[in-house]
Amino acid sequence: MLHVLQNAGDRWSKCVANWRAYTEGRVPADWPPLALLAADNTGFQDGDRHRMGRAAWDAALRPYQDPAHPQAQAMERAILRYCDDLIDVVTEGSSSGLADLFAQYGRPLPLMVANHLLGVTLERGDATPGRT
Predict the structure, then answer these.
(1) What pLDDT, on a 0 to 100 scale, did the predictor assign at position 131?
(2) Distance CA 40, CA 53 (A)
(3) Contact 26, 65 (CB under 8 A)
């Protein structure tokens, strides 16, 4: 499986445009994963396009690999703050003493971290469509 996932596309292409079933019209247009698979992103590209996209991702995330880098330190402080905030939510959320750790901690934490990486504020990240 690892070989298939790491393969550069010469035998098992990740790019939907190279799939025989897709080119023969056997993949339904309303197949739910198709929107993701057909999107122009590095996860589903092969060859030079994949390598160029991967290099850009690697360069963008490199500062976070070094604990001494200011961006990595800022990220660590943000994650600790998010963890503390979410633990407060879990402990204050219910008089029954029960908590849904997935809903109250496991799901929001990676979303908060992703928002931080993308520069999205919590207020904007929590906004619902149609609200300002």
Answers:
(1) 36
(2) 10
(3) no
pLDDT exceeds cutoff 80 at 87: yes
Say if residues 46 and 15 touch (Cβ distance below 8 Å). Answer: yes
Which pLDDT tens digit goes with each residue over 106-128? 999 999 999 988 888 766 555 43
* DSSP state letter for 68: T
Stated pTM of the model? 0.62
Cα(97)–Cα(56) distance, integer angstroms: 46
Please measure the distance between the N-terminal and C-terminal CA atoms of the chain and give it in whole angstroms.
45
**Rg of the chain on CA atoms, in Å:** 20
Tokens of 31: 């197949």
Question: In whole angstroms, how far apart are CA 101 and each of 7, 67, 79?
Answer: 36, 28, 17
CA torsion sign for 74, 80, 83, 84 is negative
